[in-house]
């Protein structure tokens, strides 16, 4: 220590200290910064294969070079341009079975039948990501609900998401046949991807709007809401006054009508 | 024809009936009371008038009061064993109520609030709430069902008519009341001493004021300009406040961080509050209810209104989140169609056309907040809302 202390006024000391500090900062940033997962695994082969898959399966709506196509009637779009949507959008749309779309319609519904194996989806994602920079697929750590703050996530969810997806994430109606799907039991990966890419009617919540940490908080809140034991038993779809009112009308009034009939009957 | 108006098949009851058999129906030779029939049942197509009893149209002058139906005694009236059985049922129902109440108390004190139970058809639920509900239901239903069963089986059920007595008092009694009142007025000297009469009237009349005033006062202060102002006018905008405008940064709700124009990518939506609102000491909710803003970025080519473009910043536009119908937060933004939907009554606003109403009960477009960027690149308000936000009110004009 004495040797170091003696040289602390050496002209090179400041430069060495600065260098050390920069190295430390760089190492710390590399350790905590969100890493785009696909950056490491993409190869030129994948992009070429992805393009072939895309042209065979997606180009009829999205155009041969993913430039988007119109239907020819008014401003209706057969498939939007995919420049800049990134691998994340491909992963979400194809990984949840929404794409390829079953029929041209107001909404592409989620489907348990995923039409492509995971590696093909990755290849198409690599191709789309090569067109223009876009959001990447999150790492496992970024979507780990156990690492999120449930209370903060609840606050963020109520301001940013609850108006469409309902206070408990049960989903709700939008205009002209579109709807916000239920978030009950949705894979945390898909929740993250949806926020990041803004699929279909959903707005984009980029990392400047909801930071990756905030997204993880929201995922933690939704997971906790889904796993929460309901002391009242039946949640009636967590839809609030509509389903509760229907229940009260059918069962509550039904019982009351039965009582009234019994009261009015003469004893034998 | 007979006076009773009963059908007489032998002869036409009255000329009115004869008129029914009009010449249009010449082959129809039915008499009143006859059953019209075809040649053989089911052999030919059925005409509308077949199978019907032809009425004679006679209506009696008035219907006799049929009186009460004959009283039929119940089994418990006739059979002592049945009465005993009814007594036991009533007793059992009251006993059920007693058990329910005891069970309620036991569940309230004896069951752990965290304990759960599985109920078929409902799922896993809190055991204590389940027991409290079932026991209280039993205790209330037991009393009700027991009392009704008692009344229906054992209490007398013979129909009786109780005539209403005359409402009007006798003339003597009415005269006596008037006399008493006159005597009272006379002896109290109220007619002779007008000072007492008028001061008493004034005292009693004014006494009503303290009762009425708190009701009016309880309505709170007059809104003054507060319905026309928002926090964007420069600060707190409650009754009596006169904020002066200064550009305010647009802050994320709930993080309370400023927003750079570059943060808002196309298709994004930000929920925005003015700078300083969330750090207010009090009145946060009142200010929030007026100042909430939705920030969206569209492709500038999609925006059809020049004013919307001018009041925005490179396709970033800010609109009041308070519905012009009844003030719900209009938060459902569809980035594909650029529709903004209000969840309460489905008013839909088109963001590409200056948020004009394209569906639903709202009458006015959402007010736009003019925005720009400051020296550091953060979005700031360029002027307050130019019209009152939210639903209509009397003084809005």
How would you characterize the overall build of this protein?
Chain A has 268 residues and is mostly helical. Chain A is built from twelve helices and four strands. In chain A, the strands form two sheets. Chain A has a two-stranded antiparallel ribbon. A two-stranded antiparallel sheet of chain A has the order 3-4. The radius of gyration of chain A is 26 Å and the shape is flat. The two termini of chain B are 76 Å apart. The longest helix of chain B has 31 residues. Chains A and B meet through helix 8 of A and strand 2, helix 4, strand 4 and strand 7 of B.
In short:
The complex is a heterodimer of chains A (268) and B (397). Chain A is mainly α and 268 residues long.
Helix content of chain A: 40-55%
Outline of chain B, from the CA principal axes? Answer: extended
CATH architecture term of the largest domain in chain B? 3-layer Sandwich
The residue ranges of chain B in which pLDDT falls below 50 over 5 or more consecutive positions are 1-30
Number of helices of chain B: 9
Strand-residue proportion of chain A = under 5%
Structural class of chain B: alpha+beta
Helix content of chain B: 25-40%
Number of domains of chain B: 4
Biggest interface goes to: A-B, 34 and 47 residues
Number of strands of chain A: 4
The main pleated sheet of chain B reads as:
5 strands, antiparallel
Number of strands of chain B: 13
The whole-number mean of residue pLDDT values of chain B reads: 86
Keywords:
heterodimer, A: 268 residues, Cytochrome Bc1 Complex, Chain D, domain 2, 2 domains, two-stranded antiparallel ribbon, two-stranded antiparallel sheet, 12 helices, B: alpha+beta, 4 domains, five-stranded antiparallel β-sheet, four-stranded antiparallel β-sheet, disordered N terminus
What layout of secondary structure does this protein have?
The complex is a heterodimer of chains A (268) and B (397).
Chain A: H1 2-6, H2 13-32, H3 38-41, H4 44-57, H5 59-62, E1 69-70, E2 77-79, H6 86-95, H7 118-131, H8 150-160, H9 162-165, E3 172-173, E4 179-180, H10 188-197, H11 212-227, H12 241-264
Antiparallel strand pairs in A: 1-2, 3-4
Chain B: H1 15-20, H2 75-78, H3 80-110, E1 116-119, E2 123-126, H4 127-153, H5 171-188, H6 194-207, H7 209-217, E3 250-252, E4 269-274, H8 284-291, E5 293-297, H9 306-311, E6 316-320, E7 332-334, E8 339-341, E9 348-350, E10 356-359, E11 368-369, E12 371-373, E13 379-381
């Amino acid at each position: 220590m004495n040797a170091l202390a003696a040289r602390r006024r050496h002209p090179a000391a400041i430069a060495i200290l600065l260098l050390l500090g920069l190295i430390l900062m760089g190492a710390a940033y590399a350790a905590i910064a969100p890493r785009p997962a696909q950056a490491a695994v993409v190869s030129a082969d994948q992009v070429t294969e992805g393009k072939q898959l895309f042209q065979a399966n997606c180009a009829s709506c999205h155009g041969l070079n993913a430039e988007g196509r119109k239907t020819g009637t008014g401003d209706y779009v057969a498939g939007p341009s995919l420049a800049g949507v990134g691998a994340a959008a491909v992963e979400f749309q194809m990984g949840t079975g929404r794409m390829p779309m079953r029929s041209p319609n107001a909404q592409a519904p989620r489907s348990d039948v995923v039409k492509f194996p995971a590696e093909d989806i990755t290849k198409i994602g690599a191709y789309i990501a090569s067109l223009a920079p876009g959001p990447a697929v999150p790492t496992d750590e970024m979507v780990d609900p156990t690492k999120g703050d449930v209370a903060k996530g609840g606050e963020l969810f109520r301001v940013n998401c609850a108006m469409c997806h309902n206070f408990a994430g049960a989903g709700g109606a939008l205009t002209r046949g579109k709807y916000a799907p239920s978030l009950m039991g949705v894979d945390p990966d898909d929740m993250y991807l949806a926020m990041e890419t803004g699929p279909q009617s959903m707005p984009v919540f980029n990392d400047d709007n909801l930071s990756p940490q905030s997204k993880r908080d929201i995922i933690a809140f939704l997971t906790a809401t889904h796993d929460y034991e309901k002391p009242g038993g039946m949640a009636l779809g967590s839809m609030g006054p509509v389903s509760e009112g229907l229940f009260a009308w059918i069962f509550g009034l039904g019982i009351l009508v039965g009582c009234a009939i019994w009261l009015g009957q003469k004893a034998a | 024809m007979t006076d009773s108006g009963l059908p007489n098949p032998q002869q036409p009851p009255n000329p009115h009936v004869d008129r029914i058999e009009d010449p249009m129906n010449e082959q129809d030779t039915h008499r009143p009371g006859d059953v019209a029939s075809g040649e053989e049942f089911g052999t030919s197509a059925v005409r509308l008038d077949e199978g019907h009893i032809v009425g004679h149209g006679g209506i009696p002058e008035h219907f006799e009061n049929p009186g009460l139906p004959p009283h039929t005694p119940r089994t418990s009236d006739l059979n002592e064993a049945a009465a005993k059985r009814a007594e036991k049922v009533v007793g059992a129902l009251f006993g059920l109520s007693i058990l329910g109440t005891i069970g309620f108390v036991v569940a309230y004190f004896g069951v752990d609030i965290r304990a759960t139970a599985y109920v078929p058809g409902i799922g896993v639920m809190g055991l204590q709430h389940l027991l409290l509900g079932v026991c209280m239901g039993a205790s209330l239903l037991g009393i009700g069902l027991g009392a009704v069963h008692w009344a229906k089986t054992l209490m007398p059920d013979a129909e009786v008519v109780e005539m209403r007595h005359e409402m009007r008092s006798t003339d003597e009694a009415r005269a006596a009341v008037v006399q008493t009142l006159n005597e009272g007025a006379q002896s109290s000297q109220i007619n002779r001493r007008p000072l007492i009469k008028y001061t008493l009237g004034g005292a009693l009349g004014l006494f009503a004021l303290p009762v009425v005033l708190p009701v009016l006062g309880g309505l709170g202060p007059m809104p003054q300009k507060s319905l026309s102002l928002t926090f964007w006018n420069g600060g707190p905008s409650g009754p009596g406040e006169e904020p002066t405008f200064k550009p305010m940064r647009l802050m994320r709700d709930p993080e309370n961080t400023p927003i750079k124009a570059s943060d808002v990518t196309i298709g994004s939506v930000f929920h925005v509050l003015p700078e300083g609102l969330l750090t207010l000491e009090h009145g946060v909710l009142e200010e929030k209810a007026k100042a909430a803003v939705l920030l969206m970025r569209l492709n500038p080519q999609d925006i059809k209104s020049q004013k919307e473009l001018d009041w925005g910043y490179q396709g970033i536009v800010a609109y009041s989140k308070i519905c012009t119908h009844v003030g719900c937060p209009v938060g459902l933004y569809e980035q594909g169609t650029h529709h903004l939907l209000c969840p309460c009554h489905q008013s839909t606003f088109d963001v590409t056309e200056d948020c004009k109403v394209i569906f639903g009960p709202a009458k006015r477009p959402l007010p736009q907040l003019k925005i720009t960027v400051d020296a550091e690149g953060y979005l700031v308000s360029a002027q307050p809302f130019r019209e009152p936000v939210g639903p209509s009110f009397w003084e809005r004009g």
